[in-house]
Design goal:
4-stranded antiparallel beta sheet; 6 helices
């Protein structure tokens, strides 16, 4: 008799999570009763058109915002119980790495300086060595001392991905990571995210691009604030 291997516990659980802005007649649901799970080492795509609520999901996941209703569990712990801003900030640094469409690099810092920056806030002792390693890992060992203006769009996004990994987070949250890139460069960024996922990194990509769904273990469709 064969026995199925136990499934790992989900790292993220949304249980009927809603996000409401305004009140009374001006009340708007950015997210309505969203329920889903994300497991460790999975590649999840949150898919939906602009204004559908997918960015709201990312902001709630990354502890950048709070649900109005429902519960969000992170590593089995209800996030609503985390009330202190400093504790939320520490969890954000430890659990999540963020990759944005606009790259959000500091223009006066080199690639190395940009990647080191989150490590400064977390007081990472070996941040220079780790930042150097990560830049080499994403194929930019020859660009350590170049500033963003001296890098291509694809290189800037690779710097942003390296930066997201500096504190060894469990989860990478990527918001339209290929949105500002041409198709060839975008494909190379997705290959990099796939490679990180194969190494055990949990990846969540928020996008409107349906072609990205072929990379995913799980697709969460978002429409008018609801998930399916």
């Amino acid at each position: 008799m064969q026995h199925e291997l136990p499934q790992p516990q989900p790292i993220i659980v949304f249980d009927k999570v809603s996000k409401v802005y305004g009140s009374g007649n001006a009340k708007t649901y950015a997210l309505r009763n969203a329920s889903f799970e994300i497991h460790p080492a999975s590649f999840t795509v949150v898919l939906g058109p602009s204004g559908s609520g997918k960015s709201t999901i990312l902001n709630l996941m990354g502890l950048l915002d709070r649900p109005t209703h429902g519960e969000y569990y992170l590593d089995g712990r209800p996030v609503s119980a985390i009330t202190h801003t400093s504790v939320r900030a520490r969890l954000r640094r430890e659990k999540f790495g963020f990759v944005f469409q606009q790259f959000n690099l500091l223009p006066r810092e080199t690639a190395l300086g940009n990647v080191m920056m989150p490590g400064i806030y977390s007081r990472l002792s070996n941040r220079k060595e780790r930042a150097t390693y990560l830049l080499k890992h994403v194929g930019l060992g020859h660009r350590l001392h170049h500033r963003p203006s001296e890098l291509s769009g694809g290189e800037q996004q690779r710097v942003a991905i390296a930066r997201s990994l500096i504190n060894a987070p469990r989860i990478i949250l990527a918001d339209e990571p290929t949105g500002n890139l041409d198709s060839k460069t975008g494909h190379s960024i997705l290959e990099l995210l796939q490679s990180l996922n194969k190494d055990g990194q949990t990846i969540v990509v928020v996008t409107h691009d349906e072609s990205l769904t072929k990379l995913a273990h799980r697709v969460i469709h978002v429409k008018d604030g609801s998930t399916e």
